[in-house]
Design the sequence.
């Protein structure tokens, strides 16, 4: 299957409701190739819901998401072939070895030579010597590295990451940051939801601040991410509304 | 999907052990309760075989998506560019393979305890068992996938599954009972077998049709 390629991702007035509960309200942003966009906000802000919609797992209740010229209302398999997702859960089978996990997912994405792709991915992750060990024996950081390779095994144009720094030590966190920079330089569109502002510092091309399902601010090339975050959130808290820019 | 599921199952033997242990216990309890002075109840073997298959099948179905739930891999499968009904078909084939493997152990056991000539016509019996198992598993796999995030899935699965699969189980019992008669009535056997095949076609078609919308959102 030929994956649908695109140069930009456009989120246009997207809202999502679960019954009467509003999870996201009128979100707008655009990300182009080679951009790394951060979704920042407290728990329950709607970051994971937005990522699930970008991944085509959820449909917007209103508004639309466009992947280049392609609309998300009809998520085709060819479009999903261009998207890689690293969720909060790692989407790995603990009973299978690292190479078997990656080979299985490479097969699902119709990657030519799944075994070769899996072996290469493990070399990139620095886990080639542990390829034949069951993933259940791995530390959280090692599993996270395998999961990142799983998300990247088909060379996606759009990479969606939900809390990718969770459970990583400093070295692994730095390695992940370096990998994301490489992907950005290679032309990927990366959307990253995180609470780890220290590791995201200097990494993001733009930061979207969410609160209570609303987009409260967008900052390009954010500097001093922690203080920016604190200022924006306290400003919104003081005004008592979550919709400064929504 | 099928290869992956079987690989995981061969390593853990989790579903195989639990379902087999449960099915064998079921047959043993019926044998001790119903076989009096070495005389089994007339036509009892077919019913007991299918009860054991249905109960063990429910147990297997309940566990089939547990692995996908624990590591949220069901989301990864739904994200893949493969057609979503293919995920269903892979899971269905995995369940059918496991249940058929269990039946290979169950059939001689039931034949032994209930003195039933189950192995006298092995090809016919295999056709009945496979068609019945496919019908049962087709509905069960769909419900198990639907309930994967429901908290009370263990309770809900049999509640939803049995009312819909009772016709399959009855057809399976009647076809097997027809096969166990000293003189097999070919017309009756073919009637129940045709009914089982109709159920298979209807259930598999409906499941393939509804799997994608049920799994989206």
Sequence:
């Amino acid at each position: 299957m030929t994956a649908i390629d695109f140069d930009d991702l456009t989120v246009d007035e997207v809202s999502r409701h679960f019954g009467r509960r509003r999870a996201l309200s009128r979100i707008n942003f655009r990300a182009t190739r080679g951009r790394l966009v951060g979704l920042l906000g407290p728990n329950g802000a709607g970051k994971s819901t937005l990522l699930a919609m970008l991944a085509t797992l959820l449909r917007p209740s209103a508004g639309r998401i466009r992947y280049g010229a392609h609309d998300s209302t009809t998520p085709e398999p060819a479009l999903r072939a261009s998207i890689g997702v690293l969720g909060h859960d790692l989407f790995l089978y603990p009973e299978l070895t690292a190479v078997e996990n990656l080979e299985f997912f490479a097969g699902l994405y119709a990657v030519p030579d799944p075994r070769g792709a899996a072996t290469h991915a493990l070399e990139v992750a620095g886990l080639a010597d542990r390829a034949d060990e069951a993933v259940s024996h791995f530390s959280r950081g090692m599993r996270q590295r395998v999961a990142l390779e799983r998300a990247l095994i088909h060379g996606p144009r759009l990479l969606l990451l939900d809390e990718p720094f969770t459970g990583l030590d400093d070295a692994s966190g730095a390695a992940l940051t370096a990998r994301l920079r490489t992907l950005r330089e290679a032309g990927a569109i990366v959307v990253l939801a995180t609470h780890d502002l220290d590791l995201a510092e200097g990494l993001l091309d733009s930061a979207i601040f969410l609160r209570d399902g609303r987009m409260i601010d967008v900052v390009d090339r954010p500097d001093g991410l922690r203080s920016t975050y604190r200022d924006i959130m306290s400003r919104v808290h003081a005004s008592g509304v979550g919709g400064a820019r929504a | 999907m099928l290869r992956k599921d079987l690989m995981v199952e061969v390593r853990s033997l989790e579903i195989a052990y639990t379902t087999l242990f449960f099915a064998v216990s079921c047959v043993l309890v019926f044998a001790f309760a119903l076989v009096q002075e070495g005389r089994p109840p007339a036509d009892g073997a077919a019913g007991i075989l299918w009860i054991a298959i249905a109960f063990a099948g429910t147990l297997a179905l309940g566990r089939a998506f547990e692995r996908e739930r624990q590591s949220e891999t069901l989301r990864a499968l739904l994200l893949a560019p493969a057609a979503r009904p293919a995920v269903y078909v892979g899971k269905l084939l995995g369940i059918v393979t496991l249940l058929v493997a269990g039946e290979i152990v169950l059939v001689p056991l039931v034949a032994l305890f209930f003195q039933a000539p189950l192995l006298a016509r092995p090809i016919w019996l295999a056709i009945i068992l496979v068609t019945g198992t496919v019908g049962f598993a087709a509905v069960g796999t769909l419900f198990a996938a639907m309930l994967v995030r429901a908290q009370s899935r263990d309770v809900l699965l049999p509640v939803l599954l049995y009312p819909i699969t009772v016709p399959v189980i009855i057809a399976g019992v009647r076809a097997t009972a027809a096969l166990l008669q000293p003189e097999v009535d070919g017309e009756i056997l073919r009637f129940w077998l045709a009914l089982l095949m109709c159920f298979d076609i209807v259930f598999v078609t409906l499941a393939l049709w509804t799997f994608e919308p049920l799994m989206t959102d």
